[in-house]
Fold this sequence. Notes:
The complex is a heterodimer. Chain A is mostly helical. Chain A has three helices and no strands. In chain A, 79% of the residues lie in helices and 0% in strands. By secondary structure, chain B is mainly alpha-helical. Chain B contains six helices and no strands. The longest helix of chain B has 25 residues, at 52-76. Chain B is globular and about 50 Å long. The interface between A and B is large, with 70 and 88 residues.
Amino acid sequence: MLLVQFLLLSSVLFCIGVYGVLSRRNGVMVLMSIELILNAVNINLVAFGAFNGTVAGEVFALFVIAIAAAEVGVGLAIVLLIFRNKRSVDISEIDQMKG
Amino acid sequence: MVAQNIFFSIMAATMIGSALKVVTTRNVVHAALWLILVLAGAAGQFLLLGAEFVGVTQVLVYIGAVIVLFLFGIMLTKASMGDDDDVNLANRPTAAAVGLLLLGIMSYATVDFWRGKELPRNRAPQTAEQVSDSIFSDFIVPFEATSVLLLAALIGAIVVARKE
Lengths: 99, 164
Protein backbone atom coordinates (compact mmCIF):
# COMPACT_ATOMS: atom_id res chain seq x y z
CA MET A 1 0.00 0.00 0.00
CA LEU A 2 1.18 3.48 -0.78
CA LEU A 3 1.31 6.12 1.91
CA VAL A 4 -0.16 8.74 -0.40
CA GLN A 5 -3.50 6.94 -0.81
CA PHE A 6 -4.23 7.38 2.90
CA LEU A 7 -3.09 11.01 2.80
CA LEU A 8 -5.36 11.73 -0.18
CA LEU A 9 -8.35 10.06 1.51
CA SER A 10 -7.71 12.17 4.57
CA SER A 11 -7.41 15.36 2.49
CA VAL A 12 -10.74 14.65 0.80
CA LEU A 13 -12.47 14.03 4.15
CA PHE A 14 -10.88 17.17 5.63
CA CYS A 15 -12.13 19.35 2.77
CA ILE A 16 -15.62 17.84 2.93
CA GLY A 17 -15.61 18.72 6.63
CA VAL A 18 -14.48 22.29 5.90
CA TYR A 19 -17.30 22.63 3.35
CA GLY A 20 -19.76 21.36 5.98
CA VAL A 21 -18.56 23.83 8.63
CA LEU A 22 -18.88 26.74 6.20
CA SER A 23 -22.21 25.79 4.62
CA ARG A 24 -24.33 24.49 7.51
CA ARG A 25 -26.77 26.62 9.46
CA ASN A 26 -27.69 24.09 12.13
CA GLY A 27 -25.27 24.10 15.10
CA VAL A 28 -25.40 20.33 15.58
CA MET A 29 -24.53 19.76 11.91
CA VAL A 30 -21.53 22.10 12.21
CA LEU A 31 -20.27 19.92 15.09
CA MET A 32 -20.71 16.81 12.90
CA SER A 33 -18.57 18.40 10.20
CA ILE A 34 -15.90 19.13 12.81
CA GLU A 35 -15.94 15.41 13.65
CA LEU A 36 -15.21 14.69 9.98
CA ILE A 37 -12.19 17.01 10.12
CA LEU A 38 -10.85 15.38 13.31
CA ASN A 39 -11.24 11.92 11.77
CA ALA A 40 -9.31 12.97 8.69
CA VAL A 41 -6.46 14.11 10.97
CA ASN A 42 -6.57 10.77 12.82
CA ILE A 43 -6.17 8.80 9.58
CA ASN A 44 -3.16 10.98 8.74
CA LEU A 45 -1.58 10.40 12.16
CA VAL A 46 -2.04 6.61 12.05
CA ALA A 47 -0.80 6.41 8.44
CA PHE A 48 2.38 8.34 9.28
CA GLY A 49 2.86 6.20 12.39
CA ALA A 50 2.65 3.04 10.25
CA PHE A 51 5.00 4.61 7.71
CA ASN A 52 7.63 5.39 10.35
CA GLY A 53 7.11 2.11 12.22
CA THR A 54 6.52 3.80 15.59
CA VAL A 55 3.52 3.83 17.92
CA ALA A 56 3.71 7.61 18.37
CA GLY A 57 1.14 8.18 15.61
CA GLU A 58 -1.35 5.86 17.26
CA VAL A 59 -0.80 7.44 20.67
CA PHE A 60 -1.52 10.88 19.24
CA ALA A 61 -4.61 9.52 17.46
CA LEU A 62 -5.85 8.28 20.84
CA PHE A 63 -5.27 11.73 22.36
CA VAL A 64 -7.19 13.29 19.46
CA ILE A 65 -10.09 10.86 20.05
CA ALA A 66 -10.19 11.79 23.76
CA ILE A 67 -10.09 15.51 23.04
CA ALA A 68 -12.74 15.17 20.31
CA ALA A 69 -15.05 13.48 22.82
CA ALA A 70 -14.52 16.38 25.25
CA GLU A 71 -15.08 18.87 22.44
CA VAL A 72 -18.37 17.28 21.43
CA GLY A 73 -19.56 17.29 25.05
CA VAL A 74 -18.82 20.98 25.58
CA GLY A 75 -19.99 21.91 22.05
CA LEU A 76 -23.37 20.23 22.45
CA ALA A 77 -23.77 21.82 25.90
CA ILE A 78 -23.22 25.25 24.30
CA VAL A 79 -25.67 24.43 21.48
CA LEU A 80 -28.28 23.35 24.07
CA LEU A 81 -27.75 26.60 26.01
CA ILE A 82 -28.21 28.63 22.82
CA PHE A 83 -31.35 26.64 22.00
CA ARG A 84 -32.73 27.27 25.49
CA ASN A 85 -32.14 31.01 25.22
CA LYS A 86 -33.17 31.61 21.60
CA ARG A 87 -35.41 28.59 20.79
CA SER A 88 -33.26 27.96 17.72
CA VAL A 89 -29.89 26.44 16.83
CA ASP A 90 -29.46 28.62 13.74
CA ILE A 91 -25.86 29.88 13.93
CA SER A 92 -26.57 32.81 11.60
CA GLU A 93 -28.86 34.28 14.28
CA ILE A 94 -26.10 34.34 16.90
CA ASP A 95 -24.64 37.76 16.28
CA GLN A 96 -24.78 39.49 19.65
CA MET A 97 -21.00 39.90 19.72
CA LYS A 98 -20.88 41.42 16.25
CA GLY A 99 -19.15 44.78 16.43
CA MET B 1 -1.25 -6.44 -1.28
CA VAL B 2 -3.96 -6.54 -3.94
CA ALA B 3 -6.58 -7.59 -1.40
CA GLN B 4 -5.56 -4.73 0.91
CA ASN B 5 -5.87 -2.24 -1.94
CA ILE B 6 -9.31 -3.58 -2.87
CA PHE B 7 -10.50 -3.23 0.73
CA PHE B 8 -8.97 0.23 0.93
CA SER B 9 -10.82 1.32 -2.22
CA ILE B 10 -14.17 -0.03 -1.06
CA MET B 11 -13.87 1.62 2.35
CA ALA B 12 -12.54 4.88 0.92
CA ALA B 13 -15.40 5.13 -1.59
CA THR B 14 -17.93 4.40 1.19
CA MET B 15 -16.36 7.00 3.46
CA ILE B 16 -16.24 9.75 0.85
CA GLY B 17 -19.81 9.06 -0.31
CA SER B 18 -21.12 9.04 3.27
CA ALA B 19 -19.15 12.16 4.17
CA LEU B 20 -20.72 13.97 1.22
CA LYS B 21 -24.13 12.85 2.44
CA VAL B 22 -23.29 14.14 5.96
CA VAL B 23 -22.65 17.64 4.64
CA THR B 24 -25.39 17.73 1.99
CA THR B 25 -28.43 15.90 3.43
CA ARG B 26 -31.27 18.11 4.63
CA ASN B 27 -32.31 15.69 7.37
CA VAL B 28 -30.41 16.17 10.65
CA VAL B 29 -30.99 12.61 11.87
CA HIS B 30 -29.83 11.15 8.56
CA ALA B 31 -26.65 13.24 8.78
CA ALA B 32 -25.86 11.63 12.14
CA LEU B 33 -26.55 8.16 10.73
CA TRP B 34 -24.35 8.78 7.65
CA LEU B 35 -21.63 9.92 10.05
CA ILE B 36 -21.65 6.40 11.54
CA LEU B 37 -20.60 4.97 8.15
CA VAL B 38 -17.71 7.45 7.88
CA LEU B 39 -16.51 6.61 11.40
CA ALA B 40 -16.82 2.85 10.79
CA GLY B 41 -14.83 3.26 7.59
CA ALA B 42 -12.14 5.13 9.52
CA ALA B 43 -12.02 2.25 12.03
CA GLY B 44 -11.54 -0.12 9.09
CA GLN B 45 -8.68 2.01 7.77
CA PHE B 46 -7.02 1.91 11.19
CA LEU B 47 -7.24 -1.91 11.18
CA LEU B 48 -5.80 -1.94 7.65
CA LEU B 49 -2.88 0.15 8.91
CA GLY B 50 -2.25 -2.35 11.74
CA ALA B 51 -3.52 -0.03 14.48
CA GLU B 52 -5.83 -2.45 16.27
CA PHE B 53 -6.21 -0.52 19.50
CA VAL B 54 -7.05 2.76 17.79
CA GLY B 55 -9.58 0.96 15.57
CA VAL B 56 -11.38 -0.57 18.54
CA THR B 57 -11.25 2.73 20.44
CA GLN B 58 -12.74 4.47 17.41
CA VAL B 59 -15.71 2.07 17.44
CA LEU B 60 -16.17 2.36 21.22
CA VAL B 61 -15.79 6.12 21.61
CA TYR B 62 -17.10 7.50 18.31
CA ILE B 63 -19.79 5.08 17.19
CA GLY B 64 -20.71 4.11 20.74
CA ALA B 65 -20.64 7.44 22.53
CA VAL B 66 -20.27 10.45 20.25
CA ILE B 67 -23.08 9.42 17.87
CA VAL B 68 -25.43 8.80 20.82
CA LEU B 69 -24.49 12.25 22.13
CA PHE B 70 -25.30 13.75 18.72
CA LEU B 71 -28.66 11.98 18.59
CA PHE B 72 -29.47 13.32 22.08
CA GLY B 73 -28.41 16.78 20.93
CA ILE B 74 -30.72 16.53 17.90
CA MET B 75 -33.56 15.32 20.13
CA LEU B 76 -33.10 18.06 22.74
CA THR B 77 -32.91 20.85 20.16
CA LYS B 78 -36.22 19.65 18.68
CA ALA B 79 -34.94 19.34 15.12
CA SER B 80 -37.60 18.27 12.69
CA MET B 81 -37.45 14.56 11.96
CA GLY B 82 -38.15 15.02 8.25
CA ASP B 83 -36.34 17.08 5.64
CA ASP B 84 -35.59 20.60 6.75
CA ASP B 85 -34.96 23.34 4.20
CA ASP B 86 -33.37 25.58 6.80
CA VAL B 87 -30.16 23.65 7.47
CA ASN B 88 -27.95 25.31 4.86
CA LEU B 89 -26.60 28.84 4.64
CA ALA B 90 -26.94 30.84 1.44
CA ASN B 91 -23.17 30.98 0.88
CA ARG B 92 -22.86 27.35 -0.23
CA PRO B 93 -21.11 28.10 -3.57
CA THR B 94 -18.43 30.06 -1.69
CA ALA B 95 -18.04 27.22 0.81
CA ALA B 96 -17.70 24.71 -2.04
CA ALA B 97 -15.09 26.91 -3.72
CA VAL B 98 -13.08 27.14 -0.48
CA GLY B 99 -13.29 23.37 0.00
CA LEU B 100 -12.24 22.58 -3.57
CA LEU B 101 -9.37 25.10 -3.48
CA LEU B 102 -8.13 23.62 -0.19
CA LEU B 103 -8.43 20.11 -1.64
CA GLY B 104 -6.43 21.12 -4.70
CA ILE B 105 -3.62 22.67 -2.65
CA MET B 106 -3.49 19.82 -0.10
CA SER B 107 -3.58 16.99 -2.64
CA TYR B 108 -0.98 18.68 -4.85
CA ALA B 109 1.35 19.17 -1.86
CA THR B 110 0.95 15.62 -0.50
CA VAL B 111 1.27 13.92 -3.90
CA ASP B 112 4.25 16.05 -4.81
CA PHE B 113 6.13 15.20 -1.61
CA TRP B 114 5.02 11.64 -0.73
CA ARG B 115 4.57 10.19 -4.24
CA GLY B 116 5.74 6.56 -4.54
CA LYS B 117 6.53 6.11 -0.83
CA GLU B 118 5.38 2.61 0.16
CA LEU B 119 4.23 1.59 3.61
CA PRO B 120 6.52 -1.11 5.03
CA ARG B 121 5.35 -4.55 3.93
CA ASN B 122 4.54 -7.40 6.34
CA ARG B 123 4.66 -5.26 9.43
CA ALA B 124 3.44 -6.88 12.63
CA PRO B 125 0.38 -4.95 13.91
CA GLN B 126 1.11 -2.62 16.79
CA THR B 127 -0.27 -4.35 19.86
CA ALA B 128 -2.17 -2.69 22.67
CA GLU B 129 0.79 -3.57 24.90
CA GLN B 130 3.19 -1.45 22.83
CA VAL B 131 0.71 1.43 22.70
CA SER B 132 0.14 1.40 26.46
CA ASP B 133 3.88 1.10 27.18
CA SER B 134 4.43 4.17 25.03
CA ILE B 135 1.60 6.16 26.65
CA PHE B 136 2.80 5.42 30.19
CA SER B 137 6.47 6.13 29.51
CA ASP B 138 7.19 8.59 26.70
CA PHE B 139 3.81 10.32 26.65
CA ILE B 140 2.96 10.36 30.36
CA VAL B 141 2.79 14.19 30.56
CA PRO B 142 0.35 14.60 27.62
CA PHE B 143 -1.66 11.70 29.07
CA GLU B 144 -2.03 13.44 32.43
CA ALA B 145 -2.86 16.72 30.68
CA THR B 146 -5.58 14.89 28.72
CA SER B 147 -7.09 13.51 31.91
CA VAL B 148 -7.20 16.99 33.46
CA LEU B 149 -8.73 18.33 30.24
CA LEU B 150 -11.43 15.63 30.27
CA LEU B 151 -12.30 16.51 33.86
CA ALA B 152 -12.46 20.21 32.97
CA ALA B 153 -14.67 19.45 29.95
CA LEU B 154 -16.97 17.28 32.09
CA ILE B 155 -17.43 19.99 34.72
CA GLY B 156 -17.71 22.69 32.04
CA ALA B 157 -20.40 20.81 30.12
CA ILE B 158 -22.44 20.27 33.29
CA VAL B 159 -22.12 23.92 34.35
CA VAL B 160 -23.04 25.21 30.89
CA ALA B 161 -25.96 22.88 30.22
CA ARG B 162 -27.74 22.71 33.58
CA LYS B 163 -30.80 24.79 34.29
CA GLU B 164 -30.38 27.75 36.62
